[in-house]
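ENTRY TYPE: protein
WANTED: fold as tokens:
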Amino acid sequence: MRLLVTGGAGFIGSHLCERLIREGHDVTCLDNFNTYYDPNIKRKNVQALLSHPCFRLIEGDILQYRLLKKIFKEGNFKVVIHLAARAGVRPSIQQPRLYQKVNVEGTVNLFELSTQMEISKFILASSSSVYGNNKKVPFSEEDPVDFPISPYAATKKACELLGYTYSSLYSLSITCLRFFTVYGPRQRPDMAIYKFTKNIIEGKAISLYGDGSSQRDYTYITDIIDGVIKAIQQCEGYHIYNLGESQVVKLHRLIRLLEEIIGKEAKIKRLPDQPGDVPITYADVSKAKHELDYNPRVSVHQGLQEFVQWYREAGSSRYRENEL
């Protein structure tokens, strides 16, 4: 099967491309290698795939409609997996216009071309951030998500709504996947687990926003990729699914686990709560379990062990080379 993966050189995208190639698919990866973090890191993510005959890398942007049209015409894709987005809750508060343009306009470009080219399935990466300060836990797909507290979250909600519209108007099968705090090897260097691991190992202070009581549903990368693959197989009509571990971990416990795994005590720099951050994310995955046979397997302790091992063996040198 021929698939297009947007944002395919990123953290989640590169793992997905590898899995799809292993399963015998023909994958086109589209990535603009933007400078949100060092683009050389993303190039290394897909370096091993470049020589594979079933993998094609195109450097381009989802805002470049003419380029997208050419890619779709030549690609003869059956499925589009749309992971490309301007990432990050906190930066979106400083650059809301950029986030709206990339995340919403870029997604509409892909919806338009998917309908024109009669794509059979479209998988849209959404986010747990759409739940905002939802008081009911765990978060269910049936919960109202009308009160996002960051521009990033608002753009993801907008894309889900547009997805429903395109699915209704053009019978395009669209599945929206709300990812919950994905982590693992190749994680972006601006994410907490990466930064905490790096600073603890190097003996530097880690920034702790708030009192450490905030809770996250940390989901290991292999479980997320399993969920995406299940969605590709099952995608019919319009659906929204939570993909999380369905367990919550307080921030101060996460730090203790990393201290235990690394074998070194963390130095803490306490800071106020950050605008746009929510006190908890917690996925109800019963719908995904029932309809997708989604079954997260990696506990946070096991996942952190895997991440720290990767960081010691490859991650630290990979990122340090790009800091020179």
The CA atoms of residues 184 and 221 lie 5 Å apart.
